[in-house]
Design brief:
There is one protein chain. The protein has a 4-stranded parallel sheet, with helices on both faces. A 4-stranded parallel sheet has the order 6-5-7-8. It has a 4-stranded parallel sheet with strand order 10-9-11-12, with helices on one face. The chain folds into 2 domains: about 260 residues, NadA-like (Rossmann fold, 3-Layer(aba) Sandwich); about 80 residues, NadA-like (Rossmann fold, 3-Layer(aba) Sandwich), CATH 3.40.50.10800. It is of the alpha/beta class. It binds 1,3-dihydroxyacetonephosphate and iron/sulfur cluster. 1,3-dihydroxyacetonephosphate binds next to helix 3.
Length: about 350
């Protein structure tokens, strides 16, 4: 790995945001009730000209329904791309709020519904727009790159949006233009990117309550019990966990790795909702959860995002039936947030920086 520029410094946000992490409660439905709700959802998707887009971390019944009805299950970047390109006039986004907001920002003319509007993300909650804007104002010489896991208002303050699947390539691209950067909000991902690229990054001090709980020492012990296992790690994890990884990547990249790597076992350090898709693409392989318990463990999430778990079939049905949980974004804010997201999509499609000439 490259060494980051020594000028890189790590800063704390001026205000430590406080938020509650809810308990992880998954929807439980009897088989007959589930079948009845699924039938109603299928009919409503047609009636409402809607498509269901889900993240890999939501309940597997929602993932399966999305795929069975012509929708899509993917990582946050690809969810945005799919929703943007699909002709449906209503998008039902099963995931966390920033995913619904991104869909709305990219598609202001479409109706965007979610199973719940309570599904937050600790990275978004840990990066309030006012404090972040003041942080950026204090470093006007830096290009502002924010993770997709942020509010519309934070995106509106950014030059670029990045996802875990695109961040290293994007930061390398900006580094080659000699740009010095602010990266927010995930400090672990920021640290990983700084080491992978050698770029000069000033980090916001946010974290994911799911990934920060993975434990390096206990992972090392588990690897000794499973010497044949390959270790797959999402880069929101602590450096001690990333250091043990065979593959570090976005959710989609980790799924591709399970399918592509010739190994019988995989230890997986990300939300266990991803096991559904991994098992589909690699049915014969054994998947083992990376440890979150152990010395110094608090295990507030135990490898399952409490906000992703709030997505249930009942919520999907209610949203489609009544138009509940519609994402609404102030049009002016949406226009400002559109630019850095569109820039990401163009960059990820191999088209470089569409706004280089400042013409957008
Ligand atoms: P991906 O972009 O890799 O899907 O990550 C989204 C996320 O919230 C991970 O915790
Ligand atoms: Fe946010 Fe972490 Fe949940 Fe992903 S897993 S949505 S980063 S809290």
């Amino acid at each position: 790995m490259n060494q980051p520029d020594p000028a890189r410094v790590q800063m704390r946000p001026p205000v430590a945001p406080r938020f509650e992490v809810p308990p992880t409660v998954c929807e439980s439905l009897a088989p007959a009730e589930r079948a009845s709700i699924e039938t109603q959802i299928r009919a409503l998707l047609v009636r409402e000209d809607a498509v269901l887009v889900a993240h890999y971390y939501v309940d597997e019944t929602i993932q399966a329904l999305a795929e069975a009805t012509g929708g899509h299950v993917s990582d946050s970047l690809d969810m945005a791309r799919f929703g943007h390109e699909h002709p449906a006039t209503t998008l039902v986004v099963a995931g966390v709020r920033f995913m619904g907001e991104t869909a709305k920002i990219l598609n202001p003319e479409k109706r965007v519904l979610m199973p719940t509007l309570e599904a937050e993300c600790s990275l978004d909650l840990g990066c309030p727009a006012d404090a972040f804007s003041a942080f950026c104002d204090a470093h006007p010489e830096r290009t502002v790159v924010v993770y997709a896991n942020t509010s519309a208002a934070v995106k509106a303050r950014a030059d670029w949006v990045a996802t875990s699947g695109s961040a290293v390539a994007l930061v390398n691209f900006l580094k080659d233009r000699s740009e010095r950067l602010i990266w927010a909000p995930d400090r672990y991902l920021g640290d990983y990117i700084a080491h992978a690229t050698g770029a000069d990054l000033l980090l916001w001090n946010g974290s994911c309550v799911v990934h920060e709980e993975f434990k390096g020492r206990e992972l090392h012990d588990l690897m000794r019990q499973h010497p044949q296992a390959k270790v797959l790690v999402h880069p929101e994890s602590p450096a001690a966990v990333i250091a043990l990884a065979d593959v570090v990547g976005s959710t989609s990249q980790l799924i591709q790795a399970v399918a592509a790597i010739d190994a019988p076992e995989f230890i997986v350090a990300t939300d266990r909702g991803i096991f559904h898709k991994m098992q589909q693409v690699a049915p014969g392989k054994r998947l083992i959860e990376a440890p979150t318990a152990g010395r110094g463990a608090t295990c507030r999430s135990c490898a399952h995002c409490p906000w992703m778990a709030m997505n249930g079939l009942r919520g999907v049905l209610q949203a489609l039936e009544t138009g509940a949980n519609e994402i609404r974004i102030d049009p002016d804010l949406g226009r400002r947030a559109y630019r850095p997201i569109k820039r990401l999509l163009e960059f990820s499609a191999g088209r470089g920086d569409p706004f280089l000439a400042g013409d957008a």
